[in-house]
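Hi there,

I know you've been waiting on this one. I reran it after we fixed the sequence typo, so this is the corrected version. Both the input and the resulting structure follow.
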Amino acid sequence: MTNILSVQGLHKTYKSGVVALHPTDLDVRKGEIFALLGPNGAGKTTLISLICGLVMPSGGHVAVGGQDHVKRFRDARRLIGLVPQEMNVDIFTTPMRAVRLTRGLFGKKPDDAYLEQLLRDLSLWDKRDARLIELSGGMKRRVLIAKALSHEPEVLFLDEPTAGVDVELRRDMWKLVHRLRERGVTIILTTHYIEEAEEMADRVGVINKGRLLLVDDKDALMARMGKRQLIVTLQSPLAALPASLDRPGLALGGEGTTLTYSFDSHAGDTGIADLMRALQAEGIAFSDLDARRSSLEDIFVDLVAEDRSRAA
C-alpha cells in the first residue's frame, strides 16, 4: 500500500534544552485510519504540529503525498487538513464565511455546493449565518472540522477531536470519518478515548515522553501483546489459595470471591483444563465463568509503564 505520509528522523529540541520529540520515523498508508496514543505531554501534538508546519523542526524530513514539507511547503500543506484542540477561529465570523475563507486560502476555487454539503454533514447548515460567538461549544468544534475539510484535503489530522464534546457530536464525527475514509482520505488522530482507537483504527502508534515506542497493526498488536483472562466467581469466599492452585497467572481477589487466571490464548496448552480439574479436586464450587481479553488501554498502560521503568 502506498504511503501518503513519510517522516524520517523528525525531532524537536527547544532553546531551553527541552526535548519535545526525539528522532522519529513514521510511515502512514494512504486511506488508513492511524491512531496516535499517549498521555498528556507525550509529544502527540508536537509531532502533528511539526508535520503540519506549525512548528519548525530541529531536524528530520517530512513528505506528504511525495511533497517535501520544506522545499514544497505550500504543495504539501495543501494536502493536509487539521482540526486542532483549541479554537483558532474569529468568533465574530460565521460558519459559511469561515469555510469559504479557508478554502480560498488553500487556493481552491469556490464551490458552494460542496461547502453546503459539508455543513449539512456536520449539522451546521441551519447555523451557517450565525456568528460563532453565538454558537455552543459543540457547534464551534463542528466549525473547526468544517474548516479543516473545506479545501478537500487528502490527509486529515484530528488532534483530540472528541475531548470535551457531547455524545451527539462524537457520533456524527465518527460517521463523517467513515465516509471520508470511503472516499480515500487518510485519517490521523490522537485521542484519550482509547476505546475509539480500538474501534476505529487500522494501525496504532504509542508515544511517550517524545519517543514513538511502537507502531503496529491494531489486530496484530492485540494478538502479539494482548492477554486473556478467565474470571471465576466462587460460590464461597476463600481465605487463601490452596497449595494445589498455586500456579503462575492465578490470583485471588474480590475479598476471596474471585479467581483471575491470565493466560496466553495462542499457547498450545492454556492451562485452563488443569485449573478446572484442580478446582474440582479441592471441592471449590463456582457460580460464574467470564473470559476477557486485554484492551488497547491495557496494552498502552503496560507499554508506558515499561518505558518508564527503562528510563528510571
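Quick highlight: The radius of gyration is 24 Å.

Best,
R. S.
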